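Researcher: Quick sanity check before group meeting.
Model: Go ahead. Protein one:
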Amino acid sequence: MSWRIRERAPGQGRGGAAGAFAAVCLCWSAGAAAHSASDAYLDLTVTRGGEQGGSLVHGQWDIALRDLDFVLDLDDDGDGRLTWREVRRHREDIARYAFAHLAVAGGPEHSCSLKPGIQEIDAHADGAYAVLFFDVHCKRAPQRLSLDYGLFFGIDPSHRAIVVLHDGEETSTALLSPQNGRIEVPL
């Protein structure tokens, strides 16, 4: 697993000019972000027709570093600021924790496996985020895709995940919460 800092042109994507700042310096102050809501962003893109007619889902999961720091204690020197070195040192802990709280399936007749990919850092308007890329491989194309999500739900009842699913020309969105951590989407 490797890390990259995502580079964006000013005004491009969610991070905008803040994304360019993240490419120069990754520093985060716990006090400055203490009042932000706990959100994560999950972007899924379905492709079909791979080997033996199966399906592949490409995923991008943006998780606030302030939330990950709360559960994984990423700030090794305790100075209230996360550095690139500290986050990089904990990248496997981040992946292990995050992927223990996410399951994607195609139904009982369609086995799927989740494979983590690279990790990056991105800046959003409310702070720095770990960006985890992953692929979900399904042996046969499922009729439905189910997503079980539970990141931070056990410790933060205000946590929400915003999910966007791209399937050909169709785009669906969902909001996941502790009261609604599972969705099923027809494909």
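Researcher: Fine. The other one?
Model: Protein two, sequence then structure:
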Amino acid sequence: MAGVWRASGGVENRPAREYDRRVKGPPIKVRCDCGAVRSVPYGETWTCEECGRRWNTSQIPSEEYWGILKQMRRYRLEAMGVALLIAAVFVTLGLTIGQRFFLMAPLALGVWFLWYMPGWRKKVRAAARSLPTWDLTPE
């Protein structure tokens, strides 16, 4: 049982609701044969206002779609991990050896932004350019 705080003072006990909200991925850009373009969430359908064709993004294999999202999440976590590693090294050195290492932090930030991040962006952009495209068929 989960407790819920009431404004009148005290805790009201009621059963905890399960967290069932589905995580949605980024929308997919669908181009209709008539030229209309719309961003549609994965798994949903869109009916073109101009020609009436109906497009279903569920035609995209879910393993491929969620695999791409997993790969992009891995890239973001990699960048955050390197940043945390650099911060941990400087904090550890600053606390154990001396505070002069804190003065070198701007140098580390410069290396991070001028050397590591451009390479990381180049890698992510190359991966994004090589993503597959799917040809949906109207229903």
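Researcher: One line on it for the slide.
Model: The chain has a mean pLDDT of 82.
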